[in-house]
Design brief:
Strand content: under 5%
Order of helices and strands: HHHHHH
Keywords: Membrane, Transmembrane, Transmembrane helix
Number of domains: 2
Structural class: mainly alpha
Shape: rod-shaped
Number of helices: 6
């Protein structure tokens, strides 16, 4: 239902409803678009009931804009909460499945690395080279031990030196050491 004032205001150039401009703050303002839809719904219901609108339908006040924007933001928050609640089990299953897949991939990588390492360390060339090196080390150790037993030790050398120092020569009396 339009009043005579609304008809005259619409007929005047430059006079138009500023409700959309007051409610919507930008092209991506979902809350503002919903607030405008709620505002227009309230204006329509008031007109159908025959009651006068509390707010000016052509230029709503700052308070009216705030009331409808708050209602729109609350509706959007409720929708988002319901969507998150509904999607939560699927998200959890998906994240668990992704974690299991990542662990399986890591396990396969570790298994491949271990297999490659064992294969590389047990090749016949590596085994032969290791055997030859161990054989050479064993021979060197055996030779060192035998050489050590073949030589007199330091104690035997001292005893021998003392005995040689006490042996009498042809011109010296027995039992007197030589100098």
């Amino acid at each position: 239902m339009t009043t005579d004032d609304d008809t005259r205001a619409a007929a005047r150039p430059g006079s138009y409803s500023r409700a959309f401009e007051n409610m919507v703050q930008g092209p991506d303002d979902t809350a503002g678009l919903l607030a405008y839809a709620l505002f227009k719904q309230a204006v329509r219901e008031d007109a159908m009931n025959g009651t006068g609108s509390v707010a000016n339908p052509r230029n709503p006040s700052v308070t009216t804009v705030k009331v409808f924007r708050d209602a729109a933001e609350q509706m959007l928050a409720e929708v988002a909460t319901r969507a998150i609640t509904a999607a939560k089990p699927d998200l959890q299953r998906s994240s668990i499945a992704n974690a299991i897949t990542a662990l399986r991939d890591n396990l396969q990588t570790v298994q491949a690395n271990i297999t490659n390492h064992v294969t590389n360390q047990t090749r016949y060339r590596h085994a032969i080279i290791t055997g030859v090196i161990a054989w050479l080390i064993t021979i060197i150790i055996t030779a060192a031990v035998l050489y050590n037993f073949a030589l007199p030790n330091w104690q035997d050398r001292i005893v021998e030196a003392v005995r040689e120092a006490q042996v009498p020569t042809a011109g010296s009396p027995a039992g007197t050491p030589q100098r």
